[in-house]
Amino acid sequence: MPGKKRAGPKMTIPVQLVLRALLAEPTREMYGLQVCQAAGLPSGTIHPILARLEGQGWLESRWEDAVPQDEGRPRRRYYRLTEDGAERARIALAQATVSVTALGLRPRPAGGLA
Amino acid sequence: MITGELITNAVAAASSVSRIGPRAHVRVLALVVAESAKEARTLADDEEALAPGHGFNPSDPSSAALDARLLAVHLARCAEDARTLADDVLPLDGDLDAAGLERLQALADGLTAGRDLALRIRDSYTDAAHYFALANDLTDAHARTVALARALLPGAPGRRSGKRQVRTARRLVAAAARMLPAGDRARYAEEFRSELAEIALAGGGRAAQLGYAARQLMSSVRLRADLKAPRRRSAVP
User: Fold this and answer.
1) Which residue of A71, B37, B143, B234 has the fewest CB atoms within a 10 Å radius of its CB?
2) How close A102 comes to chain B (CA, Å)?
C-alpha cells in the first residue's frame, strides 16, 4: 500500500545476528540449533526471534522429510529466509548498521556457519 | 501348543520400548530362540515316540525325527550364542565393535539355517503346522537380528549413540511447550524434543541438556508473546 510502512521486526542485536547468519547462505535451510551456532546466540533466545521473523513473513519453516524412527530423533524444523524476507533483511541490516555505526558500536560479522 | 504368538508378541513388545539397548534386545532374542529350541525338542521327542524305527539315528539322514533333533540342538546352540553375545560382547547402548558385529551376523546366519531346516522338514513331519509356526518365529528372530546388526553398524542411520537424554530435561521442554498457545504447542514440543535429542546425540551430557531445557523454559514467556502477536504466517504446517 503506497505510503504505508510495512511492518518489520525490531532490529535488536540478536535479531541482526540471526539475520546475518541466515543471509550468509540465504537458500540454506537450518534448524534452530544450527541458527544458534551460526549466530553465536544461546539456544533460549533463538525461537522467539525465529517466531517473530516467521510471523512477519521474513522466514518460512517446514518439517524435515526424514522418518524419526530412522533418524533416532524427532523431526527437525527447518527455517529459511523467504525471497521477500531476504531482501528486506538486507535493507534492514544496512539501516541498522548505519545506526550502530552512529552509536560507535561495531556489529559482528556474518558467517561462521558450522 | 506352539508358543509362536506369545514369542512374537514378547519380541515386539520388547523392541517397541525405545530405551531398550542392544544387550537387552539380544537377551530377549535368546529367550525366544531358547523357547523355539524347547519346542523343537518336544516335537522331536513326539516324533520319535510315534515312529520308533525313525528315531535319532545318524545313519539315516532322511529321517524327519533326525532333522527335528538336529533342529532342536541347533536352536539350543543359537540360544546359547545369543546369551553369551548379550553378556560378553554387546554394549549396553552405542557402538558395536567388529568382533561383536561378526558374532551378531553369525547368529543371524544360524537362525536362517534353523528356519530353512524347519521349512525343509515341515512337509514330511507328523505335525507340519508346528514346524511352519517354528519357521515363522525363526524368520522373525532372524529379521530382528539383522536389523539390530544394521542399526549398530557405525554411521548407520538411526544408530543410537551419544549420551542418553536426561528425563528432567525432557520434562522441562515439555513444560516449555505447554506454556505456548494451544495451536503452537505440538509443533514446538516436537521441535524442542528434536533439538534436545540433537544435543544428546552430539554427546551433550546432563548439564548441556538441562541448560538447553532451562533456557527454553525461561524464554517460553517471550515466545508465547511473539506467537500471540498479530502476524503474517508463511510456515508450511
Assistant:
1) B143
2) 29
